[in-house]
Amino acid sequence: MTTTSQSGAAHPAAPSSDRAFLLGLYQRIVLIREFEERVKFLFLEGTMPGTIHQCQGQEATAVGVCAALQAGDYITSTFRGHGHALAKGLSVQELLDELYGATTGCCKGKGGSMHMGNMDKGMVPGIAIVAGGIPLAAGMALAFKLQKKPQVVACFFGDGAVAEGAFHEGVNMAAIWNLPVVLVCENNLYGASTHIGKVMKNPKISDRAASYGFRGETVDGNDVLAVLAAAQRAVEECRAGKGPVLLELLTYRRTGHSRRDACHYQPKDEREAWFARDPITRFAEVLLARPDVKQADLDAIKAKIEAEIQTAVVNAQQAPQPTLANLTEDVFA
Amino acid sequence: MKRQGIAEALRDGIAEEMTRDSSVFCIGEDIGVPGGWGGAFTVTLGLSDKFPGRIIDTPIAELGFTGMAVGAAMMGMRPIADMQYGDFLFLASDQLINNAAKMRYMSGGTIKVPMVMRAPIGATGRGSQHAQSMERYFTGVPGLKVVAVSTAYDAKGILKAAVRDDNPVMIFEHKLLYGSKGARAEPGAVDATSDIPEEDYVVPLDRAVVRRDGQHVTILGWLLMAHFAAQAAEQLAKEGIEAEVIDVRSLSPIDYDTIGASIRKTGRVIIVEEGPKTGGVSAEIAAGIMEHCGESLQAPVVRVASPDVPVPFSPILENAYRPDVARIVAAARNLTQS
Q: Which of B65, B76, B105 lies nearest to residue A331, judging by beta carbons?
């Protein structure tokens, strides 16, 4: 039941071959990278409060999966959710405002980096307890099934979540009731600083699906088109009542687990090998192989993003901070 | 009007809410198995026939099905989750405390989690792990409403109010008060039946109730202890001590209006709690009384609670563990003579 699709696997003909669509994917990937790099700078210079868990290097997983979803579909995320949020359509401004604790943030400054979300845009605030989003997503999918609605949930989690009891319980129930949930495991090889080799006998995470009786697939998570294709298949199956599906997306975190982590536990040769497979560089190569895409097109996309982020940073640093009255609001509905 | 026990009243309440609102469903272990029990205490007996597909039997996975209830509630459903024994709430507590209780706040007030978690508690001959008083672990969690039902009338009205509430509500029930019948009958059960009106009604989630008027001392209790407090008051009356008995009922928030009005009248209070004294709900209530009406006290607050030990099995030890009528009477005598 487990298959592996690597880079070069058949990509769906449409709309993924459409120039505007592909450049849109590229824009999202670069947006996430640039956003994260800017956030890292702001955090390290000390103007941004809190803590951060970033996703540089993992942009293609978020963008590929979210591009397979429709408006009305939901995602759940984790403490490493900035990329998921941007991929699902949250704005740079509402995210930066949230990171600065402003009332104009996507969660009015009450969520912060680990709890980014906006239900109007289909994103549950990040669940920062490892695997905590899995039963939750299964429950959302149960609601869709009971309500006879066509929506699906894509549930993002990391390789570390697979060791949690919540993974087993949520996945098992999603399986026995054929729930429309795409279980998206971003396998970046490390749970915080611990390599998967130390915490799992079988490191092929997609194999787990077969033991629950449904389909799993390992995908090159740094190939946005491979992720998109796999996610489209999974979403289609879920919508047809044949869920869940487990997607294991192989990827790599270029930056620390959090804050000032210098990643000394990542071997140099491993880092270099993965850096050579960077999702942005690789997708740029795919795009530039087309006669209708020029380097200038890609440069223009990046320049526009940089300008957008710059404006948003200025706005966020001046965004309204909560008043003390806000402290006790929003506890109960 | 009909006479019902708590299990029957809850069953009717659930059925009426499921009929009224198609978003209401039940989820839990062994709650809808044909030929089964209708949950460990028969509360959902027969409902799976009446509501096919809406009484969802889960694997033995308390964390998982609780998380599913939270997720379904966020998507507009109104789940009633059934925790077979309250002790299992420890397994589910991540989803209750980190997700259900916080989701509204973390989302800046945009998400609603209208779910109900029902859980039986009480020392009832089952040893240490199917017996704890669990309410203490949840009363201090912002974002959760916590109630405890001691009569059939309240059970039905509070269940309905909880289902209709847009927040997560935990309903604690006592195994000796269900009035479960047949093979699931509970030895040592206490009569908690009520006259149940035919018409629809709700009982508010934030109000204590005075069960007996008195001038000399206020006795606070909930669940089984509310019954024991009332029985103690009957005995005390024969000695000329008139105790006012309050079923605290709402454990979070606590109704200090009702409690304070009584203490301002009596000047003396005993809080009775099944469960270890240290860290109990009674500690919170005692502190709250000091803040709200401490100046009215003519004597220090008295607590009657279980000793700080796990619930024992041996009936002799279990009976010594759980506060009883004699201990409440003795405490009241002592306090009113001070």
A: B105
The answer to whether A329 contacts B109, with C-beta atoms less than 8 Å apart, is yes
Q: Confirm whether B2-196 and B209-336 share one CATH topology.
A: yes
Domains of chain B, residue spans: 2-196, 209-336
- pLDDT at position A174, please? 98
Among A64, A70, A79, A74, residue whose Cα is nearest residue A28: A64
Angle between helices A279-288 and A295-317 (to 10 degrees): 140
> pLDDT by residue (tens digit) across B103-126?
999 999 999 999 999 999 999 999
pLDDT tens, position by position, B306-338: 999 999 999 999 999 999 999 999 999 999 997
Strands B2-4 vs B194-196: parallel, antiparallel or unpaired: antiparallel
Structural domains of chain A, ranges and CATH numbers in brackets = 2-9+16-318 (3.40.50.970)
Q: Among partner residues A111, A125, A136, which is closest to B70 by beta-carbon distance?
A: A136
Query: What's the pLDDT tens digit per position in B279-307?
Result: 999 999 999 999 999 999 999 999 999 99
Q: What CATH fold (topology level) applies to the domain B209-336?
A: Rossmann fold (3.40.50)
Phi-psi map region of A125: left, alpha, beta (phi>0 left; psi -120 to 50 alpha):
beta
> Yes or no: is domain B2-196 CATH 3.40.50.970?
yes
> Which of A172, A108, A112 is closest to A331 using CA atoms?
A108
Which residues in chain A come in under a pLDDT of 70?
A: 1-16
Which positions in chain B touch A168 (Cβ < 8 Å)?
Answer: 61, 64
